[in-house]
Design brief:
single chain; five-stranded mixed beta sheet; 5 strands; 4 helices; alpha+beta; Aminopeptidase
Amino acid sequence: MVEITPLQPQDRPDWLELWHGYLTFYESEIDQATTAATFDRLTADAELHGALARDDDGHAIGLVHWLTHPATWTRSDYCYLEDLFVAPDARGAGAGEALIAHVRAWAERNGSAKVYWLTAESNATARRLYDRVADRSGFIHYQIRMP
């Protein structure tokens, strides 16, 4: 059974291990100062939210981060699920689905009009889960990076 718990300051070592796994998965690097600030914001900032998935032995096996923002198509906020990661050796045991369900329940309690997220086209394993629990929007993501 997977247990989902809100991210707490004492979770830093567990979160950091999962965060580094997430960055490695996406072949990305973030400097230590930004990583530290991200964790601090997730545990102290009212606008960023985080949770961990733990297995039966209490080991952290997954993380999720989300935030809400105003939208022009509704009077309610949208909930953006920004990061979702399950450790490779724990995949397929329901942690990803439980983390998504946790965010969905939070968003519903807090009046969000929808929950949405992005993933890499190549992320076939996660997309099988996403196709089961959500509808594809049909939109293509574009971005402009600032210097």
